[in-house]
Design brief:
Subcellular location: Membrane
Shape: elongated
Protein name: Ion transporter
Membrane topology: Multi-pass membrane protein
Structural class: mainly alpha
Number of helices: 12
Number of strands: 0
GO cellular component, one term: voltage-gated potassium channel complex
Helix content: over 70%
Radius of gyration: 44 Å
Keywords: Ion channel, Ion transport, Membrane, Potassium, Potassium channel, Potassium transport, Transmembrane, Transmembrane helix, Transport
Amino acid sequence: MVPKPRTQRPPRTHSSELKGTAYEIFIGILSVMSIVNLVLVLVFTGYEALQLVLALMNGLFNIIFLIDFIYRFTTSEARGRYFFRRFGWADLLASVPLPQFNILRVFRLHRVYQLLRALGWREIVRTLIHDRANSTLMSLLMMGILVLQLGSLAILAVEDGAEGANIDTASDAIWYTLVTISTVGYGDQYPVTNAGRLIGVVIIIVGVGIFGTFTGYLANLFLGPSKKNSEAPDETAPDTSADAAGTASAKDSSDIGKSAAAGVAAGAASGAVRKGAAHAASGGAAADDGGSSSDSEDDRERLERLLAQSERLSAELRQLLEERR
């Protein structure tokens, strides 16, 4: 008894859990930032302003990670496998606003790394180049979050305690950075030191680039032609395919008509030849002494040859008509 060969299962892929290369890189960088913020909170325990800035950024990360968990769970093909075997439970707990569960973001970072490693770095670069719209959007969001945190911490570090400074609390620093990034500039908060003004210039330049590009992205998204309209045929353009089909149909009909007319003529000729051959046969049998028997035989053979040719022509025309149908 020959044992059956064991069939190997195909390797399990994570393509269904991968929600876009740019998106996964965005979530991975946010995970790294959140873990770094946790370390900073534990190290700089005596700086109240720094703790407040990091706490506000951690709240923003919680909201983003909760949205990410809902997005992954609702779009996953196997929700149970994602939740229990792909650390979905860790994604949910890590988005809870409790410091005890924030360390679970390491599992999120590990999963994103595994998913991206399955693609390969060449495929990642190629996808980012070709999918420029999503890559640009994720890059803008990432730059906005980075500037919001780093700008707030930097402006607070150089302005706090300076003579005549009006940015001396964490809320003032975050408000100034947010207003400057959005290019609104109320003027209620402003730096007074040279280092603070230099940081403000950097924030302004980055903010103009971020919101300018983001505005262009939204304009193209809402005002640009949709894919359906771009792929739809132009109704005002002449329908060349219909004209070509009509021309071909008319040509075929003309050929069939000619063939039918030739067949009718051949049939009439065949009938006439048969009648002539029969008449010749009867005339040759009843010929009188004034006629020549040899001439009658020659006419009969000639008519029989004509009859055979007409029958062949009729058969060919019938076959041609059947093929045309």
